[in-house]
Amino acid sequence: MNPTLAGILFIASLIAALALAYRFLGDYMYRVLTSARHTAVERGVYRAVGVDPDADQRWTAYARSVLAFSAVSLLFLYALQRFQGHLWQLGTHFVGVPADLAWNTAVSFTTNTNWQAYSGEATMSHVTQMAGLAVQNFVSAAVGVAVALAVVRGFIRSRTDRLGNFWVDLVRVCWRILLPISIVGAVVLVAGGAVQNFTGGHDATTLTGAAQHITGGPVASQEVIKELGTNGGGFYNVNSAHPFENPTSWTNWLEIFLLLCVGFSMPRVFGRMVGDKRQGRAIVTVMAILAIGGVVLVNWAQLHHGGTVPTAVGAATEGTDLRFGVSNSATFAGATTLTSTGAVDSFHDSYTAFGGAVTMFDMMLGEVAPGGTGTGLYGMLVLAVITVFVAGLMVGRTPEYLGKKIGAREIKFASLYFLVTPAIVLIGAAAAMATKNHETALNTGPHGFSEVLYAFTSAANNNGSAFAGITVNTTWWNTALGLAMLFGRFLPIIFVLGLAGSLAAQKPVPASAGTLPTHKPLFIGLLVGVTLILVALTFLPALALGPLAEGLS
Amino acid sequence: MRLPSWITQHLAALRAVLVLTVLLGILYPLAVTGIVQLPGLRDNANGSLVKTGETTVGSSIVGQAFTDADGNPLKQYFQSRPSAAGAGYDMDSTSASNLGPESIEDTLGDPALDPNSADGDGSSQALLSQVCSRSKAVGELEGVDGSRPYCTADGLGAVLRVFYSDGLSGTVTRAVSVNQRCPATPFIGTYEGVTVECAKFGEDYSGGVLVPVRGDAPADPAVPADAVTASGSGLDPNISVAYADLQVNRIAQARGITTDQVRALVAKNTTGRALGFMGEPAVNVLELNLDLDSTYPFHG
User: What contacts B217, CB < 8 A, 6 or more positions away?
Assistant: First the structure.
């Protein structure tokens, strides 16, 4: 079969599988997340934690619970890394992680970014990986879904100040959604060749008599949730390019599916919750249009292999593993940057200039197509609010969405939400250039600037993938990117919960002849347009200095 | 006494973190590790180790280098792809090169320093020159044309710094082949009428415009792409079918067997695309070399 056709079939089979996930995983998640019943284990957890699962929280209390949980997670993970040298290690022998790196990593994993300024196999003990990092892979993903649920409740509830119970949302997502899929997925990955053991590895003597240390670790159990929870922090330095994390071409397909499936199922949950499946279908259509566009563009750029080195080579194979090939690697790159995953199975730094630019643009979309677990849905709903507002301005009517008026207060929250990330990215990149911290980049000129821009885009959007050719394990970079991740995660959460609180307090307005139907193609087209235009207006000048300058020179 | 609510909230959060750590951070990985002790999964879970007799020689899904202690290819073995993991295929420091598509200008070493010392002489090759030198070396080893677009005949990036009378425009005043250190002969004699110079350490060429020169090498070189580029993992266990084919003659000669005998083993160790459309057809180099050693032992 011709490689291009094989690449197209690869994408088409993913689309088909995700359509099924939207329908069936989406319905399952809806049932689980809206059920009034608690399982025995969950009741045990609530008792141990000391919370009343049937209490309903105000938006401020919900936000405080999110922040408290994340703050304690951060401190716990920080302490675990600092003291790993004194703990049981299951075969590895690592000393404590230095303070700035431990801070950066703790923020990175609690914010679902999973940016890695360290090399896994040379820094983290097995215990830190599984009891620290992998736990955050679960719970930071669950926090995203929890916030999304609270936001949807803002639309469906009326004249109330209550948005649900954070602890119940958190525990249910972990226990009834992420954990069962992870157990099955981990075993399937092992069947493909991923490792799962508690040894420090084996010493091999190669055919030519050289020494090779075959590493070990609980990899499969962490790999699966890394994708499913759109986290992306690899057990090993080379992430999902590593044969022990992603051993075959079909595990590669599975990992791409896992990192997209929750994001694409959330609109179904939304549609069911608002009692109109067409609303969910409209949102998922917008996500799909943007996602397919992004994936196809990266594929096109990589298969077309423009640029000096790719032309000399005859293919964009630098930084890709042979079992995946260029096309499937490009599909992974598109998927990982369109969600907030940031796992990589090939190295974006060595991508063609336009291929690299597309992955960056994907992240700049704000991780909404389909975005991270939960974060993608609430990000898209904020854009939908902005879209009905823009459409309302055009025809001179008070805009409304799902029966709620979009007034000054709602638009303020939505605008603040949207402005956070560009502000962090542009100020951060400018600060790096102004303080000469960009000089740790491996490449010079426009490509060096791309590395800086990519780093802040990835951190602020909680993506975590890297144009890896920049040394970020310095005090300045660890601190700056840590702050970027922290603000990039929690400021939007506060604003979007504020928006939800404001919507929940309203009484619904009945739809009239002048209401813009939000399930029709017109609205879908508007929402795609607003997303692209907002991002383009915000980031094009910066992109022009980096990848565009490189690609056009 | 009653604690303030902000404290009770954080205590609840702490208890939640601890409970979830036990469930998801300890019980879950233990359960998965328990399940994969089943026969059929267990060997995979332990790293797909390959043994000859009592010796572990590697993992069947992790690549290794088939070179001598100085890094020269051993002629009786199929060669793996270039690797950026440590000194090559080092599982304790996995890495890709992370060099970009326009990484075309080398850093020349200081001739006053020893390139073989621990610190080296400060030289480093850009990706283009790495590709060109690998292509030349593989071409020589396999007896085919190792030329590529944008490469000089001596296996470096064919790149000029061109100086113009008015900065970025005007007439060409000077041209330097930046990757060819003096006394090398530049890959072209003149550029727009100006004699091309070789590069000297310590001279600042940053005022010139970088111009890669395509040359007349075929667009589809004899040495395949995977033979000249480093993988993402640095541990790629595979090479392309084209790169395996290229090595067949050499292996047959070194081991004193026919090319058909080698081809049969290549075919045996080639996996097609999963389900016919996932990934790329790939040859497992370690398994192939093990098969060669057991079927047709090398008598060096």
Answer: B147, B148, B149, B151
- On whether residue B162 sits in a domain, the answer given is yes
Domain-embedded: residue B258: yes
Q: Name the percent of chain A lying above pLDDT 90.
A: 80
Instruction: Say how many CA atoms lie within 13 Å of A544 toward its Cβ.
Output: 6
- Give chain A's domain count: 2
Q: What is the pLDDT of residue A468?
A: 66
B213 touches chain A (CB under 8 A): no
Predicted local confidence at residue A440, as pLDDT: 78
| pLDDT tens column, A455-487 | 999 899 888 887 767 888 899 999 999 999 999
Query: Is residue B5 situated within a structural domain?
Result: no
ipTM of the prediction: 0.95
Are A244 and B279 in contact (CB < 8 Å)? no
Residue B191 shares a structural domain with residue B254: no
pTM over 0.80, yes/no: yes
Looking at the partner chain, which of B17, B59, B238 has a beta carbon nearest the beta carbon of A76? Answer: B17
From A275, A294, A311, give the residue that closes a domain. Answer: A275
**A323 interface with B at CB cutoff 8 Å:** yes
Number of other residues whose CB lies within 10 A of the CB of residue A52: 10
With an 8 Å Cβ cutoff, are B282 and A215 in contact? no
- Its domain, for residue A456, covers 378-552
Residue A68's closest chain B neighbor by CA? B10
- Inspect the interface and report whether the beta carbons of A312 and B150 lie closer than 8 Å: yes
Q: Are residues B164 and B57 in the same domain?
A: no
pLDDT tens string B176-209: 999 999 999 999 999 999 999 999 998 999 889 9
B15 at interface of A, judged by CB pairs closer than 8 A: yes
Q: What is the pLDDT of residues A164-215, one digit of tens each?
A: 999 999 999 999 999 999 999 999 999 999 999 999 999 999 999 999 999 9
Residue B26 lies in a domain: no
**Does B180 lie in the same domain as B119?**
yes
Give the closest-approach CA distance of A447 to chain B in angstroms.
7
Chain A residue whose CA is closest to B148: A312
pLDDT at A90: 82
Quote the number of domains for chain B: 2
The three state secondary structure string of A330-371 is HHHHHHHHHCCCCCCCECHHHCCHHHHHHHHHHHHCCCCCCC
A410 and B CB contact within 8 Å:
no
The Cα A434–Cα A382 span in angstroms is: 33
- Of A510 and B266, more confident: B266
Residue among A81, A106, A112 nearest A96 (CA): A81
Question: What strand order describes the sheet that includes B169-181?
Answer: B190-191, B194-199, B169-181, B159-166, B209-212
Enclosing domain of residue B57:
36-96+230-300
Instruction: With CB atoms and an 8 Å threshold, state whether A237 touches B98.
Output: no
Among A153-167, A336-350, B104-118, B129-143, the least confident range: B104-118
Contacts of residue B50, Cβ cutoff 8 Å, sequence gap at least 6? B56, B57, B58, B59, B60, B286, B287, B290
Distance in Å, alpha carbon of B195 to nearest chain A alpha carbon: 24
Q: Is residue A252 part of a domain?
A: yes
Of A197, A215, A311, the CB nearest to B150: A311
Residues of chain B contacting A546 with CB distance shorter than 8 Å: none
The answer as to whether A197 is a domain residue is: yes
Asked if residue A406 belongs to a domain, the reply is yes
